[in-house]
Amino acid sequence: MSYDKQSGKVTPISGKDRNDFTVTEIYTGEQGNIWFSTMEKGMGVYNLTYKTMQFYPYKKINPDNSATYPIKTFCYKSPGQFFVAVMDSLPAIFNTLSRTYLFFTDSVIQATPNKTTDIKVDRQGNLLILKGGSFYIADVAGNELLKTSFKKDSTLLFPFIRGVELPDGIALATLDYHQEKLKKIILKYNQNSILIYFDVNFFSDEKNIQFAWKIDGYSQGWVVMPSINLDSSRAAFLQDLAPGKYKFQVKVKIGKGDWRNQIAELEIVIKPAYWQTWWFWLSIIGVVGLIIILIVKMRVRAVRKQERVKAAHEKQLLELEAKALRAQMNPHFIFNCLNSIKSLIQEKQTEKGVTYLTTFSKLIRTLFNNADKKEITLYDEIETCKLYLQLESMRFDTKFSYQVNVDENIDLKSVQVPALIIQPFIENAIWHGIMPKNNGGTVLVNVSKNNGHIEIAIEDDGIGREASQQNKSINTAHQSKGVNLTQARLELDNLLQQRQATLVTIG
Asked: The whole model's pTM is what?
């Protein structure tokens, strides 16, 4: 049959002979000719130029009554030659130039029943024959007659990984079901002892195949396997691999040749156990650090608690001391006032005594109102001092005068001071400065601002401090403790209220 590309018609290549033969194989590799085999007439050729057809039956080695020349198939051997599978005879070589057949004379093939059903050349150049139900492989490289022009396919000699399994026989990867794992396999930490099976696509003279494998960081260079045809020679046993990444490599050599450059590789990843991972140890360090921080915080908290308790006790103690000082101050002042009233009564100055007593009662009421207060406003303190000055002025009549001057820019009610903190200094000015002076004097109380601070100054024009000190050493009738108590109170108040109150004596 022929096919016309333009018309698309299919026509018999020979009208009268088209039913006389059965074509079994076709070869179109020769320019101008189409070679084919038949079951009746042997090899045939169709000339594309002259549209002619020729047949070339072979000479039968064992003539019989059959008039046919059956050829099951044929294949290319070399330019001008085919390997031919003659069904009723031996396989042969057909020469397209001389149009002749050369039958095989191999004794093994001759001993097989004459029924050659197939003949092929593989990519290694080996001749494969099916004859009488038997399969034959012939290495054409060692036989000048059978040599082909085929270039051997070197990829067939590549080694390859065909399986990975545990020592107990459990398969982890196989060529049939896990091909992707034979490039890279990821294993658990307890799967670190494995068998790796490898092979090569070469089946001729297997006893001369030899393998070598290596793993950098595990094996000492290449490990050469024995050259025997056993499964044990095609497997590497890797034992106790540490967690990490490995590259398994295997190479092969055939017979006495050199080691081939082709190398099969398998990447092996052994995952570490959770206690071998960096994040586990990082978390352990974090937990230990957290525990240490908690312990330190608890310790600091306990120390601070102790300090707070201690500070509270100290503060309570200071407050008790301040209360004791105030308790000492109040009786001292009251005693002086009662003495003044007593003196007026004894001197029969009844009206003065009543006025004095009224003023004194106001002062006592003020003191009682402030008794439970740690601090009072500066306004209340100045008012108390005015009552005291009025009482003492009434008692000593015209012996001294007094003035209280307050800066109008100062809001006395917004300033807090310890109760009865100014009075002792006024008392001291009257008793030790003015009283010893024969012609009397003046006491001044000035409240002003000085560099952002409130300054309270008590001044008198009495006998002076030096003369006063001499009088104190002689006259023990009035020994004022108020100034010393006030000094102690100021120091305690500074500790409790974080202030910087100071006492300054001038002149």
From this structure: 0.41
